[in-house]
Amino acid sequence: MLERLGRRRLDPDHIMTPEMARPMSELSREIGRQLGLIIDRSGQVELLLVGDHRSIMIPALPQNRVAGARLRGLRCLHTHLGGEKLTQDDFMDLLFLRLDLMSALEVDNQGRPGKLHSAHLNPRAMGERDPGAAAGAAKAEVKPWILLPPQQVSRQPDNLRELISSLEAEFSRLRPVREVDKGRDRAILVSVSSVPRAVAEESMAELKELAASAGVMVLAEVIQRRDKINPRLILGRGKLGEIMLQALQLNANLLIFDQELNPSQVRSITDHTEMRVIDRTQLILDIFARRALSREGRLQIEMAQLKYLLPRLGTRDDALSRLTGGIGGRGPGETRLEIDRRRTRDRLNTLAAKLKAVSKERYRRRERRRKKEIPVLSLVGYTNAGKSTLLNALTGSDILAEDKLFATLDPTSRRLRFPEEMEVIITDTVGFIRHLPAELLQAFKATLEELGEADVLIHVVDISNPRFTEHIKVVEELLRELELDLLPRLTVFNKVDLLPDHEWVAAEAARYDAVVVSALAPETLPPLLERARQAILKNW
Predict the structure, then answer these.
(1) 106 confidence band (pLDDT: 50, 70, 90)
(2) Residues 183, 170 share a domain
(3) What is the pLDDT of residues 226-270, one digit of tens each?
(4) Which of the four pLDDT bands, split at 50, 70 and 90, describes residue 325?
(5) What is the C-alpha to C-alpha distance for residues 331 and 341, in angstroms, rounded to an integer?
(6) What CATH code is carried by the domain that includes residue 484?
(7) HSE-CB for 372 with a 13 A CA cutoff
(8) Which of 104, 77, 106 is nearest to 88 (CA)?
(9) Residues 260, 279: contact at Cβ < 8 Å?
(10) Best mean pLDDT range from 11-15, 281-285, 479-483
(11) How far apart are CA 215 and CA 209, in angstroms?
């Protein structure tokens, strides 16, 4: 009977026909389970679902139509044995799956069909919203779905195809051309943690800067504080539903999590939202992949990305096994997963060998500098502290310097002549950041070896940043981790031109024994040159 039910075809202009309603109701009551049909726009039954007494579970559906203003091209019709109307789960499925229609058929105690309850998405609730609106304001003033009046199966209007066409036309009218179609992602930032909200907001502000640095348009920010993190979805299904609604309202195509996600969490969230999902580490790796220009930088980034990817090659598929012959060799051979892992490890070994060669070449260059007895100054600091701008100002160079996180990745060295005819080498290195991915730190050790040969480290701090004290701590912790914390260090407060309170700046400079400069104002640089000269003479 189930097979025959699944082979039936509905009139594409009707939600349900009496010829389908009667056998579906009788069979559902007889087995004591909800029955569901996934139906395409031609009236063909694509899937027959058998649930339990209270619900059905809709599996993964084809995504070939889900883009822009289009609905999925499928609708769900299922039975309700308790005489209830559409439930919250029904509305969530309608929203998450972007179905054409969600319908529930009442079934009485004798197995007879009752009223038919239907709902579709509300285009006006999904229309383009102001990206600058607060996260809470993104919730619709109107419900994201519209309930149709309950109907008797035998008295339905014959306008279903016309209704769905008008819905898609309204979606198209309310939704302009998406930025993602122009090559720019539109993202919602999500943070779920147990830390105090102020700390989470600081980290979120930095994640927003990272997203902007990657060319991503940030539409909304969601911060949820939980004492216990959901191991599967990070956050609760209800909150995920709110985020999905926001994504539809704002036309977002990407979720960026501030916390590092494991592979199963990425899959679970992707399955629920059908959106691309990345975490903070992946975002930083993407920025590095875009910005690295030198051959060495590209090698380091590829190595970091492969190290990040390797534990995420976790989906085993024995259907792709290669069978081998011979005694002891029968059965599944090397699976696709194992081949991918082996190739990844082989590539990592190749990259490690190449980077070792790069490290030797750097060592030879450093030895040549040592023979010439030229002191070395190395600029270190939090990303976007103004290191490259300062290097340009001191040496008259034109290294790329932008108001972005990680604008400069490749190390750069320039000669600098002090007024007293002393010549030094000044080196700019990659900026630091909190929660710097371990893969990146390991991959960039060849670059950071330059710091170990420095006679003096110049720690550049963006004094205009409200979180500059936390940035100083992050840099100090990373230097300690790299065993560079014992090198002589000179602290420089940069971007003083952005602060009107000079007395406060002077007090902070005295507290940290720092030199106050503005890389954009050459007249502020002589005190820095004098302090650097003194530090070199003391330690050279």
Answers:
(1) very high
(2) no
(3) 777 777 778 877 788 778 777 776 778 889 998 888 888 888 888
(4) very low
(5) 20
(6) 3.40.50.300
(7) 13
(8) 104
(9) yes
(10) 11-15
(11) 10
Contact 218, 187 (CB under 8 A): yes
Structure confidence at residue 478 (pLDDT): 83
Give the DSSP letter string of 116-154: EEEEEE-HHHHS---TTS-TGGGS-SS-SEEEPPPEEGG
Q: Long-range contacts for 112-115 (Cβ within 8 Å, ≥24 apart)?
A: 112/22, 112/25, 113/18, 113/21, 113/22, 113/24, 113/25, 113/153, 114/83, 115/150, 115/151, 115/152
Show the domain range for 262.
Answer: 179-286
Domain presence at residue 224: yes
Q: Any residues with CB less than 8 A from the CB of 237 and at least 6 apart, and which?
A: 92, 272
With respect to residue 133, please indicate whether it lies within any of the assigned structural domains: yes
Rounded CA gap, 444 and 351, in Å?
12
Residues 155 and 188 in one domain: no
Give the Å distances, CA to CA, from 266 to 233, 248, 269, 312, 355. 8, 19, 5, 10, 31
Region class of 280: left (phi > 0), else alpha (psi between -120 and 50), else beta: alpha
My answer on whether 274 and 412 are in the same domain is no
Q: Which long-range contacts (CB under 8 A, 24 or more apart) does 520-524 make?
A: 520/389, 520/393, 521/497, 522/393, 524/496
Neighbouring C-alpha atoms within 13 Å toward the C-beta of 49: 21
Contact 499, 466 (CB under 8 A): no
15 shares a domain with 60: yes
In a domain, 297, yes or no: no
- In whole angstroms, give the CA distance from residue 143 to residue 35: 27
Joined together, the tokens standing for residue 208 give: 């927003």
Of 457, 361, 376, nearest to 415 by C-alpha is 376
pLDDT in tens, 150-189: 999 888 888 899 999 998 888 777 665 444 445 678 899 9
Q: pLDDT band at residue 487, thresholds of 50, 70 and 90?
A: confident
In contact, 16 and 152? CB cutoff 8 Å:
no
φ, ψ dihedrals at 190, nearest 5°: -130, 130
Looking at the 3D structure of the chain, how many domains does it have? Answer: 3
In a domain, 416, yes or no: yes
Asked whether residue 22 falls in the same domain as residue 161, the answer is: yes
The predicted-structure confidence for 82-97, as pLDDT tens digits, reads as follows: 888 899 889 888 887 8
Whose structure tokens read 């502000």? 205
Q: Is 30 exposed, middle or buried (0-12, 13-18, 19+ CB in 10 A)?
A: exposed
Which tokens in the block code for residue 361? 């070449």
380 and 518 in one domain? Answer: yes
Token pair 């309850």 is found at 117
Return the percentage of the chain with pLDDT > 90, whole number: 19
Q: For residues 335 and 426, is the Cβ–Cβ distance under 8 A?
A: no
Placement of tokens 């309950």 in the chain: 150
